[in-house]
Amino acid sequence: MAISTRKFPMEDVVGTSIPQSHSAVPAKRPTSSDTSATLLGALNRPQWLPESVWPFQTSALQVEGSRIAVTDVGKGPVLLFVHTGLWSFVWRDVMLRLAPDFRCICFDAPGAGQSDRLPTGSISLERAARALTAVIQTLNLTDITLVVHDLGGPSGIAGAARVADRIRGLCVVNAFAWKPSGVPFRGMLALMGSTPIREISAWTGLLMRLTSSPFGVGKHLDEPSRRAFYAGIGRQGTRAFHAYLRDARKSKGIYEDVKLALTGPFRRLPVSTIFGEHNDPLGFQPQWKRLFNDAPQVVVAKGNHFPMCDDPDLVAKCIRDLYHERVEPTLAHRT
């Protein structure tokens, strides 16, 4: 496999020697979809991302003049994982558990992860939503169970709404999908999306180091995995993260699209929500319950903002249960 020499500004934390073993990686890697390999372009594996910590082949999809990194692994019912802000590494451990029985697809939002870097002025939730629509259409995905996290809530639902007839279920993981309101919510977005905080974060790397710790994604990560996650963000990726937060406060149209979807074609979807015990200060999970009163609510004990990293076994089970108990019966009824 060809190795890319593309570097990120924070790649020095990875170094040149990364151990080639990881306990989370199965002995036999799940097989990528043949369809994906045919329809997407090649994307060389970066030097900072050894197969031992990311045991999937990632490909490239050209969207609006830049490459979007798409990972497509396993065979079976389609699970489409959407995170916007950081990158798809947050889904790794859940995908490893589900890929033997499902087709698991994730992608890095524009400007993040293995996708091409972009100027911060080009970063928006709307652009991330269009990338999601492009992934669905290019791979001709149908009967999709959408799994969204964080800003992947608004961007994922807005993007999926444009192909609403292909969506069959929705799993919400520490995400929201409505226009931010109230001083705490809008104030947080204003602070984290501000230029001073963005640049301090980009140059110091402090926020991303905290995110890669047990308080973020790192509860079960070994050191090589932690370094790879951190390297996959880099200085420009950190700027993209803050730019997405800025846009989350200022964007208007995307929330109108999401509202129309949730009250229109998605209003009867099977929905479940999964939140970390210690990370729902703004009451997002109860709000989802008000929107979908029959949606099961799962709280990950001692979990934080990334419950899929805190307890991947439980989150994988919840996604599996959502599909088999609530999505699959609707598919049988349709046929």
Overview of the structural elements:
This protein starts with a strand and ends with a helix. The chain is built from 13 helices and 10 strands. With 335 residues, the protein is of the alpha/beta class. It is globular and about 55 Å long. Helix 3 crosses helix 4 and helix 5 packs antiparallel against helix 9. The strands form 2 sheets. It has an 8-stranded mixed beta sheet, with helices on both faces. Strands 1-2 form a two-stranded parallel sheet. The protein has a single domain, classed as Alpha/Beta hydrolase fold, catalytic domain (Rossmann fold), CATH 3.40.50.1820. Strand 1, helix 1 and strand 2 form a beta-alpha-beta unit.
